[in-house]
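The protein record filed here:
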Amino acid sequence: MKLDTILVGDCIAEMNKLPANSVDLIFADPPYNLQLKEGLTRPDHSVVDGVDDAWDKFSSFLEYDKFTAQWLKAAHRVLKPDGALWVIGSYHNIFRVGATLQDIGFWILNDVVWTKNNPMPNFKGKRFTNAHETLIWAAKGPNAKYQFNYEGLKAMNDDLQMRSDWMLPICQGGERLKGEDGKKVHPTQKPESLLYRVIMATTQPGDVVLDPFLGSGTSAAVAKKLGRHFIGIERDEVYAKAAHERLVDLKPIAEREWLEAAVSKRQLPRIPFGWLLERGLIKPGDHLFAPKKQHIAKVRADANLIAANQEGEFVGSIHRVGAAIQGLPACNGWTYWHFQHKKELLPIDVLREKVRSVMGTENT
């Protein structure tokens, strides 16, 4: 399988040529089947350059559903067991696509609303201004261990959890590809900001991103910049040529360390408290303290803690005793219990990270 390439041809036929279980992420921007019956004009009677291309026209919903099922089945086959799919659409098609991908076996993780802060107005004034598109993020199946860079996204969002409503501008200005005639090359070119967030959220450097409807090549361009491999499929030779020219001189970020997303603690190796005793970082009989020394626990050789308050004596894990001594249903013992280090108290999580760092050295 050749990476970092654009395949010119039918997306279903080209995906069927790829090895099964070979790509990490699929980003799909399929035809929306907009069902436009007449040209759209502005109040000044000028014509809006909308999507009226043959590739967006289907004779019926049945034909569109058949096409959707075919490309989604091909996508499901080529996706790795722990891979994921993103598909974008509008109210014209996204609900039909969503039902079909569930029927095929994909497992929906989120729907994301891309709210456009500069949408095209509704010129006729007969409907709401259509100011958003919907993305579906789905794993290959319900048991897939899909990639999600939670901590990195949180940092991108000023230390707040990234929400499922994304306010991003449409593609415009210098980012919009134009031909020699000055007209836009592709009517539905997506902004790089949208693909940046998708790829940063759900891949790691070196992963393979497949786009079966490459169009003007936004997904491939962002993948290349971020140190991911890409495979683009596009049946229109004009679009494929424009995407190739866009990519040929594009330079990826050279240093891998600048491409890595922060690792969520859930992705880190699990370190039992007993490992601290086995490595001599904590000893039987040592005292552990609550953050303000309001509670004290003694460490047993079997890694259980013993602590007491007016309610009685408690024996158990760092988490169970931490919860019981506070009268709470749960407690993160790694951050609640502290050890004395010189003149300060440090959380035992510091010792856990020390073990992890040693493990990392041993594995290199």
About this structure: The chain has two domains: 5-266, 268-362. Residues 61-78 form the longest helix (18 residues).
